[in-house]
Design brief:
Blueprint (H helix, E strand, L loop, with lengths): L1 E6 L2 E13 L2 E2 L6 H18 L9 E4 L6 E5 L2 E9 L9 H17 L10 E7 L11 H11 L27 E5 L2 E7 L7 E11 H15 L6 E5 L8 E2 L3 H13 L14 E5 L11 E9 L5 E11 L13
Parallel strand pairs: 6-11, 7-10, 11-13
Antiparallel strand pairs: 1-2, 2-10, 3-12, 4-5, 5-6, 7-9, 8-9, 13-14, 14-15
Helix pairs in contact: 2-3
Length: about 325
């Protein structure tokens, strides 16, 4: 959940204020770079195929010369595809320590299964909430405190709640599963985790300005605007090398989606080599990779001069009037 707003001194720059949200979720096994790139390119081609768009089949994907990362060949043409991603972690330095804290905590709990057996099948929520106005970061001292607190079995949040008929809110909430403030973290334990496994979910609040999202996008496009590359695929929700994703990334793409939907130019400097930039928008900002794709193509003016105005091609599972994704020469 997030609230939209703006800074009083910059009303033209929208901001998403995201409440305490999980920042780390494991969705895959460890992945090396080639496998992560496979996920990117095949997710994109899957989206094109399910929406009835080119490239025509058969489609062959081959390693590129880096650049590009991959080459897509089909009867309708060949495309050199460069692959990259945008993540909130690129904007918020405090995000990485919180994610690492959650992973270290899980490793410690798993390593001492006899002591923490009561936590199997439960979800441990650790919300990073340092005092306002401080630049505190999680460290080993907080980790030890949380480990010590979790040795006690306090049950799960919601246990022991009884409602009368007709339902009425209880006069006093039970404190089961509530470990309170421990260092800079608020710790809660919930039921419903995978059986025989301890789940740890780190969370924190964040603010994401539209100007930051645009600056990050433009920086990545400039870095990847290389000779031999036709299309740049920018991914949201790609698992990292350890198999984790950051749900906060969706709000970064939400800014870009809304800017595009309002007809605003996403790139302030036209690329020299790239003919298309594909990034996930719309429902993808809250879902998995490439359920919807917005492609920016570089057009051609009547006299053969480059026309750098944005040409958007919406490709989605539900689009009724999706334009063709094509290579322009």
């Amino acid at each position: 959940m997030a609230a939209g707003g703006f800074s009083p001194d910059r009303p033209e720059d929208p901001i998403w204020f995201v409440g305490a949200t999980p920042v780390d979720e494991r969705v895959a096994v460890k992945l090396d770079r080639p496998r992560r790139e496979d996920i990117q390119i095949w997710s994109f081609l899957y989206s094109l195929s399910t929406s009835g768009n080119p490239p025509a089949h058969p489609v062959v994907v081959e390693p590129g010369d880096d650049p590009p990362d991959r080459v897509v060949r089909s009867p309708s043409g060949n495309w050199g595809c460069e692959l990259t991603e945008l993540t909130v972690e690129m904007l918020r330095a405090e995000l990485a320590p919180v994610r690492q804290f959650g992973r270290k905590l899980k490793e410690a709990l798993d390593a001492d299964g006899s002591r923490y057996g009561h936590l199997r099948g439960r979800q441990i929520g650790i919300a990073f909430m340092p005092p306002a106005g401080t630049e505190s970061r999680p460290g080993d001292a907080d980790l030890i405190k949380v480990e010590e607190a979790l040795r006690e079995d306090k049950g799960c949040v919601g246990e022991g709640m009884q409602f009368s008929a007709p339902p009425t809110f209880p006069a006093r909430l039970p404190d089961s599963g509530m470990y309170g403030q421990i260092g800079d973290f608020v710790v809660l334990v919930h039921a419903g985790g995978p059986p025989d496994s301890i789940t740890v979910a780190g969370s924190m609040s964040a603010s994401i300005a539209c100007s930051d999202a645009l600056a990050l996008l433009r920086s990545r496009v400039a870095d990847k605007d290389l000779g031999g590359t036709d299309v740049l695929l920018i991914t949201c929700g790609l698992p990292d090398g350890s198999g984790y994703v950051c749900p906060l990334d969706s709000w970064l793409f939400q800014h870009l989606s809304e800017e595009a939907n309002h007809g605003r130019q996403l790139l302030d400097v036209p690329p020299k080599h790239l003919r298309g930039v594909a990034l996930p928008t719309g429902e993808l900002a809250r879902g998995s990779m490439y359920l919807a794709v917005r492609v920016t193509l570089r057009g051609t003016a009547p006299r053969g001069q480059p026309d750098h105005r944005a040409h958007f091609c919406v490709l989605s599972l539900t689009a009724k009037r999706a334009r063709r994704f094509r290579r322009t020469r």
